[in-house]
């Protein structure tokens, strides 16, 4: 267990280091961290929008399972399992996109903080410091919305996995009847997830607009 944690820590450090090198290289060719942050937020938005559609599709497939009325039950199970696996992939994409946003945002704010010390004009320094504080505040609100959406994924995946496994181990009409009682919970979890993702997408739009306008 300890070895796995050490390996994970080493990989995290390596990836962080690689991203730092990448960001520095981009800056040397004229692409500032601010632009990269906007691009990564837009990538995260796209992943969340795709995720919304994927989880809606998975929910519809689950509905088709509980409404099953004869036919090839194994085929129905395989289709639901496919949707579950696609949902896992969508969740992983969202997590990776959010991590990429955090990486460049941390680098941007760290650089911004360091550059404050270079000012000799107190008035200009105060103005820039105020901009930094305001941008951090808005970013914190955006990141909180993203994290809330991300945390909403876990209950959905857990429910889907439980029901997929249950159906796999009991491919019969009785299993379908048992799953009907789960539909309401899955529906509720997916609705919460989609709503939280939409809030994160809306916060992303607001933050991007502020960055582009220089506010």
Bin the strand percentage.
Answer: under 5%
Provide a count of the helices: 6
Q: Kindly report the CATH topology.
A: A middle domain of Talin 1
The CATH class turns out to be Mainly Alpha
Radius of gyration: 22 Å
Number of domains: 1
What is the average of the pLDDT values?
88
Low-confidence stretches: 1-15
Number of strands: 0
Tell me what the structure shows.
This protein is mainly alpha-helical. It has a single domain, classed as A middle domain of Talin 1. The chain has helices at residues 2-28, 33-66, 73-116, 122-169, 173-180, 183-213. It is elongated and about 75 Å long. The model is unreliable at 1-15 (pLDDT under 50).
Quick summary:
This protein has six helices and no strands. Helices cover 89% and strands 0% of the residues.
Present the secondary structure layout.
Elements (H helix, E strand, L loop, with lengths): L1 H27 L4 H34 L6 H44 L5 H48 L3 H8 L2 H31 L2
Helix pairs in contact: 2-3, 2-6, 3-4, 4-6
Descriptive keywords:
215 residues; 0% strand; A middle domain of Talin 1; mainly alpha; 6 helices; single chain
């Amino acid at each position: 267990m300890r070895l796995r944690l050490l390996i994970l820590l080493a990989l995290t450090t390596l990836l962080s280091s690689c991203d730092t090198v990448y960001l520095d290289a981009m800056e040397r060719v004229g692409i500032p961290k601010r632009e990269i942050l906007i691009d990564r937020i837009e990538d995260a938005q796209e992943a969340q929008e795709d995720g919304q559609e994927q989880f809606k599709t998975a929910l519809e497939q689950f509905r088709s399972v509980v409404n099953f009325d004869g036919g090839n039950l194994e085929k129905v199970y395989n289709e639901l399992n496919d949707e579950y696996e696609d949902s896992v992939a969508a969740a992983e994409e969202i997590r990776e996109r959010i991590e990429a946003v955090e990486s460049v945002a941390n680098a941007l704010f760290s650089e911004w903080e360091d550059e404050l010390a270079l000012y000799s004009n107190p008035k200009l320094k105060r103005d820039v410091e105020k901009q930094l504080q305001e941008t951090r505040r808005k970013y914190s609100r955006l990141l909180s919305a993203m994290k809330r959406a991300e945390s909403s994924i876990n209950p959905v995946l857990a429910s889907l996995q439980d029901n997929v496994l249950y159906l796999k181990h009991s491919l019969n009409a009785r299993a379908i009847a048992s799953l009907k009682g789960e539909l309401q919970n899955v529906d509720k979890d997916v609705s919460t997830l989609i709503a939280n993702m939409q809030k994160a997408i809306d916060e992303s739009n607001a933050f991007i607009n502020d960055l582009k306008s220089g506010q």
